[in-house]
């Protein structure tokens, strides 16, 4: 599996990255995002019996400025709307099965175009109405 990455830019800021599924095969580990983002996305492809060395991640205090979320579509079709700082809709994109989107910052909304199944991954802890503003 492989993905073609497209940046969504509003007011000269990358607010999202769309990863469109491609059937091209990769070998090993390929990260689709830069190391400076607070949520990183990578893909892996290894042969049978390949060993990933045991490891653990070092706990470090980090300052997170943006709440990011990753959506992975399994089935259906989803339209994503992107808003500027004045809450005006500026752009949209349509996602299909196996596509992913990393929402980095800014306002966004969704419309389900075909019955949908997806996974949402976001940073926690998440405190509901204290962490989200609806408009």
Topology:
Elements: E1 2-10, E2 13-22, E3 28-31, E4 42-45, E5 69-83, E6 89-95, E7 100-103, E8 107-122
Antiparallel strand pairs: 1-2, 2-7, 3-4, 5-6, 5-7, 5-8
Which fold name fills CATH's third level, the topology? Jelly Rolls
User: What separation lies between the terminal Cα atoms?
Assistant: 37 Å
CATH-defined architecture: Sandwich
Largest sheet: 6 strands, antiparallel
User: Number of helical segments?
Assistant: 0
- Given the helix and strand composition, which structural class is it? mainly beta
Range of helix content: under 10%
Tell the overall outline: globular
Low-confidence regions: none
Number of beta-strand segments: 8
**How many separate domains?**
1
What would CATH call the class?
Mainly Beta
Note the beta-strand portion. over 45%
- Please trace the helix and strand order, writing H or E for each element: EEEEEEEE
Cα radius of gyration in angstroms:
16 Å
Oligomer: single chain
Residue-averaged pLDDT, rounded?
92
Fold and architecture overview:
The structure is a single chain. The protein is an all-beta fold. It has one domain (2-130): Sandwich (Jelly Rolls), CATH 2.60.120. The protein is built from no helices and eight strands. Strands 1, 2, 5, 6, 7 and 8 form a six-stranded antiparallel beta sheet that branches. Strands 3-4 form a two-stranded antiparallel ribbon. Strand 5 and strand 6 form a beta hairpin. It is globular and about 50 Å long. The mean pLDDT is 92.
